[in-house]
Structures are given as structure tokens and as C-alpha cells.
Amino acid sequence: MWILVIGVAVAVLLLVLVLATRGRSGAARPSDAAGSSDSTDSTDRAGGASTGVASETTPDPEPLPRAAVIVNPTKFDDVAKVRDEVRALCQETGWDEPLWLETTEDDPGSGQTKEALDAGVDVICPLGGDGTVRTVGSEMARARSEVPIGLLPGGTGNLLARNLDLPVDSLRDALAIALTGEERVIDVGVLRVNPAPMDGEGEVDDQPVDAEALAPEDTGPEELHFLVMAGMGFDADIMADAPEGLKSKVGWAAYLVSGAKHLWGSQFKAQVTTDTETFSRRTRSVIIGNCGKIQGLALMPEAQVDDGKLDALMLSPDGGIGWGAVLLRLVTAKRKGHHRVTHHTTRHITVRANRAVQVQLDGDTIGERTAITADVLPGALRVRVASATPATGASKEDVAA
């Protein structure tokens, strides 16, 4: 009898324990009710463990920084080799595969810059001559972009790079600075082309604007950007007559050949208006600078690339003796005291000529014009510079710091 009672009690106890165990299991795993697999889900969430406890999802790796390289393929004999060199250094530096964009005759860099900005790259590197740098910088300034520009040497002048003391003989060194250097904010010059004649003596008829001579980004309103210098007269004549083939063979010597050709050209009468004065003078060249140095020669010693101002230089030689005086004045970097060489610092300048004369921006000529107006866009462009030393054109406060 006692054996029967004990057997029934044990059976009831076992039944209660089973029901309780099933209840607790169902409460802890609601997915079972939906028909999902308890072992498979647990294993997937735990990365292979079958403990039934879900682990945290492994975060995606941070995307690598990426550069866009806007290259003028006509400047290189082997573009593929240059591309491989750029790609290899990006990889060494921990950067992603660069966005490689080549300019064309119809689009020298404006559309490529827009594409690079739309792609969200971290730095945009023009690789070509001063014209490519100007076109890329112009588009970035117009867009008020916060993306920095990294200057890579590929032309004869490399004017902006020289003014910022950046490498012009080593693509590898220049690219290293473009990827890892500091950012410096610089000004940009704006040139408005106005072909209207000056009033009074020597007045000429309106000259039509040569739209074909302007880059695609400049063909709307007559507003062009320059990063280094714009000029009217002798300097533009030199740029216009320096053959591309000769520049590719002998470099800057091509400009010496062209300069000798135009050395004895005639003066023109210019009416000049700055922030503080208006005057007229017969001159050979009017140069408006955002930077002041060309090939180591400080044409405008006080020009600073980030002071929110432009510097203007007027060269008014008369014959061979006059040119000798001008050269001496430029070499000794004296700013005042000679009527053949005058300097002016201003935020705005207008030059109106009594005849059409050649005009250039950063070494690119745009044809003959009778009047130009220039203004400054302070801090409109970010440029990667070397981290160790301040760039040429640094403000006195920055150098002192």
C-alpha cells in the first residue's frame, strides 16, 4: 500500500517538474512560439556559440580617406605610370584608391572638380600646369568648398606651389604633403573683363569679348578667378607668345625667348583706380598679384597670400635704359622711389587702357581687352602645405607664432 502511494506521489511530482520547466523555457525564448530555431538563432547571434546569449554586432570599419586627382594628360608622356605612382603612395599612406579624373580640351577641369566634390573626397589634387590649378581652384572657390586643394607639379611654372614653398620637382613629395600636410586658407583674386573704352584721349571702339578664349567655367558672366597673378600688357604678351612645344623642351627659357621678342613693344596709356587713388600713366605692364613671387623673383615683396588684399605693380620703362632701371629695382626688391616701377596695395583695382592689350591670368592668356577690374575673395580656398615650416605668403602674425 505504502509503495503504491509513494509511486503515485513520485509520478505527480515528476509531472509538475516537467510542466514548470516547459513554462520557464517558453517565457525566456518567445521566438520558439513563432516557429524559429532556438539553436540556429542563438549560434548566429553569438558568432558560433550556442549559449543562447546574443553578442554585440561587430562595427563596420571606418572608411579610408580618399583623394581626387585631376590630371591634364597632355603634360605627361606616360599617364599610366604617373597614375600607378599616385595609387602606390596613396596605399602606403593609408588612403583609399584615388578618384582619377582626366581633363579634356572641352573641359580643362571644371566638370571634373564638380564630380570630385560630389563624390565627397577629402582632398582634390590638380596635376598639370598653372591653367589646371587655376581652373580647379576657381571651381572650388566658386563653390565655397571646405575641401582642401593639394598641389601636384605638372607644368612649367607651378606658380602657386612656388609661392607656398611646395615641392615642384618631386611628385612623390608633393603628394605626401597633399595627403598629410596642414591646411592653409588663402585668398583668391577675381578678374572681371570689361571691354568698354576709357573716356577722353585715345578712346577706342568697344572690343568684342572672345568667348572661345575663355575656359568653360568663365563663359557666363565675365568673371574669372586667379590664384597668383593677373596682368595686362608686357607680361601677357610673353605668355601669349611662348610656344607650348618650346616650353615642354626648355621650360622657363621659353618665356625668355618670348620676352626678348616683346621687349621693345610700345606703351599704352592706363587710367588706374584703387581704393585710395585714381591716376593716369603711360605704362608697359600692369600686374595684379595675390602672390608676389615668380621663379624666385619677388615682383611684389609685400604681397601676402592671405592678407585680404591685392598688390599691383606698374612697369613703365622707356627704352633699354628704362628696362635696366626696372630690372635693378625688381632685383633689389625696393618698393618705392622710382617712377618706372610703382607698387599699390588695394582690395579693388580698375585698369582702363586707351587701346586693346593682351590679358593673362596665372599664365593663361584670354585675348586683348581694353579694361579689367580685380577684387579679392579673402580666405576663399584651403590649400595643403608642409607641416614643418610656414608657407611663403604667411602673415607676419603666423610667422611670429
UniProtKB/TrEMBL annotation:
<keyword id="KW-0594">Phospholipid biosynthesis</keyword>
<dbReference type="Pfam" id="PF19279">
    <property type="entry name" value="YegS_C"/>
</dbReference>
<feature type="region of interest" description="Disordered">
    <location>
        <begin position="26"/>
        <end position="67"/>
    </location>
</feature>
<dbReference type="GO" id="GO:0008654">
    <property type="term" value="P:phospholipid biosynthetic process"/>
</dbReference>
<comment type="similarity">
    <text>Belongs to the diacylglycerol/lipid kinase family.</text>
</comment>
<dbReference type="InterPro" id="IPR045540">
    <property type="entry name" value="YegS/DAGK_C"/>
</dbReference>
<protein>
    <submittedName>
        <fullName>Diacylglycerol kinase family lipid kinase</fullName>
    </submittedName>
</protein>
<keyword id="KW-0444">Lipid biosynthesis</keyword>
<keyword id="KW-0443">Lipid metabolism</keyword>
<keyword id="KW-1208">Phospholipid metabolism</keyword>
<dbReference type="Pfam" id="PF00781">
    <property type="entry name" value="DAGK_cat"/>
</dbReference>
<keyword id="KW-0067">ATP-binding</keyword>
<dbReference type="GO" id="GO:0005886">
    <property type="term" value="C:plasma membrane"/>
</dbReference>
<dbReference type="GO" id="GO:0016301">
    <property type="term" value="F:kinase activity"/>
</dbReference>
<dbReference type="InterPro" id="IPR016064">
    <property type="entry name" value="NAD/diacylglycerol_kinase_sf"/>
</dbReference>
<dbReference type="InterPro" id="IPR050187">
    <property type="entry name" value="Lipid_Phosphate_FormReg"/>
</dbReference>
<feature type="compositionally biased region" description="Low complexity">
    <location>
        <begin position="31"/>
        <end position="48"/>
    </location>
</feature>
<keyword id="KW-0547">Nucleotide-binding</keyword>
<keyword id="KW-0808">Transferase</keyword>
<feature type="domain" description="DAGKc">
    <location>
        <begin position="62"/>
        <end position="195"/>
    </location>
</feature>
<dbReference type="InterPro" id="IPR017438">
    <property type="entry name" value="ATP-NAD_kinase_N"/>
</dbReference>
<dbReference type="GO" id="GO:0005524">
    <property type="term" value="F:ATP binding"/>
</dbReference>
<keyword id="KW-0418">Kinase</keyword>
<dbReference type="InterPro" id="IPR001206">
    <property type="entry name" value="Diacylglycerol_kinase_cat_dom"/>
</dbReference>
